[in-house]
């Protein structure tokens, strides 16, 4: 065999090894469970879950598709998605806010570099509800916020029936919100990042 053909032979063996090497194949397997910040590429999956969760119930989504795209473009670091085998099963979208209480403008604005995150929406895919996923994702998100420089608190609004759900996660009631959507009234809830709630599940950053 000439030197040239020996080289070609070696390369072809290496290529074959690349194809059959099971360790390399495993790299392409989707993780069973993954938590990560969302990107604008996730907006459609986000909106599908959101639409099913809210439109059938109240006729209104907390965020339109354009707003989802906007927030995931402007402040992806304030979002968190839970993926199972590559499919989104639950998510949280937040944005920065710079006032003591939430007002109507907070629904569409992101104020950068502020100590407050406004949680616009937490939603779990309908097939995955009542399995603890909403609580677990919220807990992971609140732990994650400890690692975001300068972040001190989280605010959200919710309907009365979800107040106990957020209280269990360490949120405190701030009273009725000034925000109303389609005549729906909300309670405003506050969580102090770095407080004592849930410390037994300390994740480390
Ligand atoms: C609310 C939501 C995020 C909770 O997530 P989940 O994974 O189903 O909840 P978990 O299994 O972690 O916890 C269950 C607890 O949530 C609360 N909860 C959930 N849905 C509720 C509802 N419709 N009414 C009252 N409480 C409810 C209850 O406290 C329940 O505890 P219980 O089973 O002891 O009664 C989820 O049901 C969802 O996506 N709902 C539609 C969208 C929505 O309303 N989002 C919140 C406002 S942004």
UniProtKB/TrEMBL annotation:
GO molecular function: aralkylamine N-acetyltransferase activity
UniProt-listed SUPFAM superfamilies: Acyl-CoA N-acyltransferases (Nat)
Reaction equations catalysed: a 2-arylethylamine + acetyl-CoA = an N-acetyl-2-arylethylamine + CoA + H(+)
Keywords, ordered alphabetically: Acyltransferase, Biological rhythms, Cytoplasm, Melatonin biosynthesis, Phosphoprotein, Transferase
Subcellular localization: Cytoplasm
GO biological process: circadian rhythm; melatonin biosynthetic process; response to light stimulus
Pfam families cross-referenced by the UniProt entry: Acetyltransf_1
Gene Ontology CC annotations of this record: cytoplasm
Domain N-acetyltransferase span(s) in chain numbering: 33-194
Pathway recorded for this protein: Aromatic compound metabolism; melatonin biosynthesis; melatonin from serotonin: step 1/2
Presence of the UniProt keyword Methyltransferase in the record: no
Enzyme Commission code(s) on record: 2.3.1.87
Cytoplasm in keyword set: yes
Annotated InterPro entries: Acyl_CoA_acyltransferase (IPR016181), GNAT_dom (IPR000182), SNAT-like (IPR051635)
PANTHER family for the chain: ARYLALKYLAMINE N-ACETYLTRANSFERASE (PTHR10908:SF5), SEROTONIN N-ACETYLTRANSFERASE (PTHR10908)
Family membership noted in the UniProt record: Belongs to the acetyltransferase family. AANAT subfamily.
Protein name according to UniProt: Serotonin N-acetyltransferase
């Amino acid at each position: 065999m000439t030197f040239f053909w020996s080289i070609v032979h070696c390369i072809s063996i290496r290529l074959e090894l690349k194809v059959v090497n099971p360790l390399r194949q495993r790299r392409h397997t989707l993780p069973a469970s993954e938590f990560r910040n969302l990107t604008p590429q996730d907006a459609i999956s986000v909106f599908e879950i959101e639409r099913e969760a809210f439109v059938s119930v109240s006729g209104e989504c907390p965020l339109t598709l354009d707003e989802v795209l906007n927030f995931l473009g402007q402040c992806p670091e304030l979002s968190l998605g839970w993926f199972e085998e590559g499919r989104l099963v639950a998510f949280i979208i937040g944005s920065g806010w710079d006032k003591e209480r939430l007002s109507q403008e907070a629904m569409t604005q992101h104020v950068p570099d502020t100590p407050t995150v406004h949680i616009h929406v937490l939603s779990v895919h309908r097939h995955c509800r009542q399995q603890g996923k909403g609580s677990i994702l919220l807990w992971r998100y609140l732990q994650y916020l400890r690692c975001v420089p300068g972040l001190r608190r989280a605010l959200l609004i919710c309907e009365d029936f979800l107040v106990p759900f957020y209280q269990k996660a360490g949120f405190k009631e701030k009273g009725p919100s000034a925000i109303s959507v389609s005549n729906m009234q909300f309670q405003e809830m506050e969580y102090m990042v770095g407080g004592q709630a849930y410390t037994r599940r300390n994740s480390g950053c």
